[in-house]
């Protein structure tokens, strides 16, 4: 067997890729631990079962440079080995997060021998008012010593994981660094960097941006208008791109991509697992997913968020110059979730969300990622501080775990499915979750909040077109109505509506045949909440949710045919 296909790897499907584990497509129902949780096997032994009970199948946790190489050249993987065994014994997979040179734009997880040796491992210099330079808490990417030491450590990690875990595939992916980029300035202001900035832009960048202009991300093209209008084929960074913080960010992105790719390429030579890096998002359009101030998520200025990280306005640079990474993954907390998902499907790269909100608000949104954007996985952050009984992901992941094989099959035909969510409504509040309207074959489907007599509740789920006029409805708090798009159709109705369960083999099993109140006498298929509001109405016409899976078949009449 080819060793590259016997270990976890990506396989191309229509408009995306799927993660393959043990020879089968794998849907990652992930969750990330608090920053340093996985540095202690004894601590992990207290929470493994809690993670299992939350219906998580993959745990994201750190491996830190300072822990595995406290003395230069001497590696200690004993704690990591115990963690891998603990996950394996509980049937969980792991995604290792390499906190090497960078964690949240800083170098706080580097070993003490790196932190204290400023001569060997120079720091980035931040430009402050009055021309003052401030030493940053981050190694410079324009010197090779830190990069090469990080590369040796990461290579040792990947080599050890291969030796310890290859036959089990407990570890299925590895994140290279964490939220890289420069905080506090749009670029490093040291003298060596100023010199590099004044030199000619590498021709490979100019050729790539010129030849791929039509397919570049719209957020990048918006920052390249001077480049496009001048058409300069050479010159300094400011000559070619103009003087701006966007030019600084482009410069930093290119060098960060080269830095991370150097480390990733060496690690992949040791063990060819899928590799990715994650991104602290900016907010270039001021689009927030909640009532938090924009600056809380990094704002729109490079340096307020890590300048040079793989945000969408430099994503093409990362995809080109860090080819050893299999994907660039967005952390989504305050940005609009759906818009962020769409942006990171750029050039059909697979979508993975390694960090997101862990509350009910966040949990509802994973259905959009899986149902509309073929996500390989999602991962709420700080999961080890929640209890399964009150963790909203216990319910959401529990249902997704039942239908994962069905979802993975639908991912191979992305036009066959759509995900959606409906947020809580406060009294008198405008509904910020409008209906979802989609077309499948000859039918238009409208998905809206579930019918109730009282206050409409939240909801989430996905709809999968099974072919012809058949549809699978998964989730709760919504209803689906159908309209034939045939030009002569005079009536569209519901032919059948049946409750479903999933057996141990992942196959659908028919339960109750639904009709009458459950379809409002044939008007739409209701997938209600577990506790629908009857609004004081004395007849319980909206039954509570049970299996949260149903199949329906629509039909239409062409009376004048």
From TrEMBL:
GO CC terms: beta-galactosidase complex
Superkingdom, taxonomy of origin: Eukaryota
A GO term for molecular function: beta-galactosidase activity
Domain Glycoside hydrolase family 42 N-terminal as annotated: residue spans: 48-201
Key words of the record: Glycosidase, Hydrolase
InterPro entries, per database record: DUF5597, GH, Glyco_hydro_42_N
Domain named DUF5597: residues: 393-524
GO biological process, one term: carbohydrate metabolic process
UniProt KW Mitochondrion keyword: no
Name of protein: Glycoside hydrolase family 35 protein
């Amino acid at each position: 067997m080819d060793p590259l296909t016997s270990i976890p790897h990506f396989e191309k499907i229509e408009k995306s890729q799927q993660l393959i584990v043990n020879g089968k497509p794998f849907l990652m129902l992930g969750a990330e631990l608090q920053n340093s949780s996985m540095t202690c096997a004894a601590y992990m032994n207290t929470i493994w079962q809690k993670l299992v009970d939350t219906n998580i199948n993959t745990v994201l946790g750190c491996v830190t440079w300072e822990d595995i190489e406290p003395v230069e050249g001497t590696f200690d993987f004993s704690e990591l080995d115990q963690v891998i065994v603990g996950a394996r014994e509980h049937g969980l997979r792991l995604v290792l997060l390499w906190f090497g040179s960078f964690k949240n734009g800083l170098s706080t997880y580097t070993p003490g021998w790196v932190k204290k040796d400023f001569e060997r491992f120079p720091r980035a210099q931040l430009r402050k008012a009055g021309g003052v330079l401030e030493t940053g808490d981050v190694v410079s990417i324009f010197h090779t010593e830190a990069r090469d030491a990080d590369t040796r450590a990461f290579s040792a990690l990947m080599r050890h994981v291969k030796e310890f875990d290859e036959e089990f595939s407990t570890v299925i992916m590895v994140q290279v660094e964490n939220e890289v980029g420069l905080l506090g300035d749009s670029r490093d202001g040291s003298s060596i960097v100023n010199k590099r900035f004044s030199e000619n832009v590498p021709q490979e960048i100019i050729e790539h941006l010129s030849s791929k202009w039509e397919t570049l991300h719209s957020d990048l093209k918006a920052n390249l208008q001077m480049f496009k209008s001048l058409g300069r084929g050479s010159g300094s960074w400011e000559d070619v791109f103009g003087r701006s913080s966007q030019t600084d960010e482009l410069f930093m992105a290119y060098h960060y991509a080269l830095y991370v790719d150097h480390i990733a390429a060496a690690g992949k030579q040791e063990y060819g697992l899928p590799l990715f890096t994650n991104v602290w998002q900016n907010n270039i359009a001021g689009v927030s997913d909640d009532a938090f101030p924009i600056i809380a998520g990094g704002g729109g200025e490079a340096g307020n968020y890590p300048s040079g990280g793989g945000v969408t306005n430099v994503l093409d640079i990362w995809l080109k110059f860090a080819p050893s990474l299999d994907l660039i993954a967005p952390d989504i907390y305050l940005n609009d979730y759906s818009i962020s998902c769409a942006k990171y499907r750029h050039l059909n790269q697979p979508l993975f969300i390694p960090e997101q909100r862990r509350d009910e608000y966040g949990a509802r949104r994973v259905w959009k990622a899986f149902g509309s954007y073929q996500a390989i996985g999602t991962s709420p952050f700080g999961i080890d501080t929640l209890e399964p009984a009150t963790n909203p992901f216990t319910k959401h992941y529990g249902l997704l775990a039942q239908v994962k094989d069905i979802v993975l099959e639908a991912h191979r035909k992305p036009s066959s499915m759509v995900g959606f969510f409906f947020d809580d409504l406060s009294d008198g509040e405008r509904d910020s979750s409008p209906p979802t309207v989609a077309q499948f074959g000859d039918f238009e489907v409208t998905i809206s909040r579930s019918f109730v007599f009282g206050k409409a509740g939240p909801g989430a789920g996905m709809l999968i077109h099974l072919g012809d006029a058949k549809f699978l409805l998964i989730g709760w708090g919504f209803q689906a109505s159908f309209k034939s798009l045939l030009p002569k159709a005079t009536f569209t109705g519901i032919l059948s509506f049946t409750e479903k369960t999933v057996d141990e083999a992942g196959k659908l099993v028919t339960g109750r045949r639904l009709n009458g109140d459950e379809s409002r006498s044939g008007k739409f298929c209701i997938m209600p909440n577990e506790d629908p509001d009857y609004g004081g109405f004395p007849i319980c016409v909206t039954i509570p949710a049970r299996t949260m899976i149903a199949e329906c078949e629509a039909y239409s009449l062409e009376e004048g045919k």
